[in-house]
Amino acid sequence: MGAFISKFWFMLFPAKEYKIVVVGLDNAGKTTTLYKLHLGEVVTTNPTVGSNVEELVYKNIRFEVWDLGGQERLRTSWATYYRGTHAIIAVIDSTDRARISIMKDELFRLLAHEDLQNSVVLVFANKQDLKDAMTPAEITDTLSLHSIKNHDWHIQACCALTGDGLYDGLGWIAQRVTGKAPS
């Protein structure tokens, strides 16, 4: 019943909606992250071809979240989704040491895009539950996050399968895009 009232309320009094794009290399956990936040559960996923989009409501803040396919051939189309973006979530497979430099290049390419100049950046250091995972500090150094000067950014350790850290990261985005702490 509460969900019905909430949907009805938003239909009568639409709130501002904030757009988030979720990027990362294939198999980083982008879709798992999206659906863990959206449904609160892990769903069976296939490699994303194109995008998935869902609406999330977090502490009365509405987000339109676009999960973009991470295969090499799809990354060139990411820019078509950037217009109107308030926040970028870069999901990193913390165990994928072999390809993190590729993600660094992709991250700095998208940060230079004119449609993302006012976007905040959340880096999810995913798969922290695995033994060989790089720490958030290692990922920060490897991605040269401290060199990002024109965007607010934050790195958040997480595990998309359990949900650990996901809402902490979403809370950080909510605070940055609204200018106030979520209630």
UniProtKB/TrEMBL annotation:
CDD domains: Arl5_Arl8 (cd04153). Gene3D superfamilies: P-loop containing nucleotide triphosphate hydrolases. GTP binds at residues 24-31, 70, 126-129. SUPFAM superfamilies: P-loop containing nucleoside triphosphate hydrolases. The keyword Isomerase does not apply. GO terms for biological process: intracellular protein transport; protein localization to Golgi membrane; vesicle-mediated transport. GO terms for cellular component: cytoplasm; trans-Golgi network. One of its GO terms (molecular function) is GTP binding. InterPro entries: P-loop_NTPase (IPR027417), Small_GTP-bd (IPR005225), Small_GTPase_ARF (IPR024156), Small_GTPase_ARF/SAR (IPR006689). Keywords: ER-Golgi transport, GTP-binding, Lipoprotein, Magnesium, Metal-binding, Myristate, Nucleotide-binding, Protein transport, Transport. Pfam families: Arf. Mg(2+) binds at residues 31, 48. Belongs to the small GTPase superfamily. Arf family. PANTHER family: ADP RIBOSYLATION FACTOR-RELATED (PTHR11711). This is ADP-ribosylation factor-like protein 5.
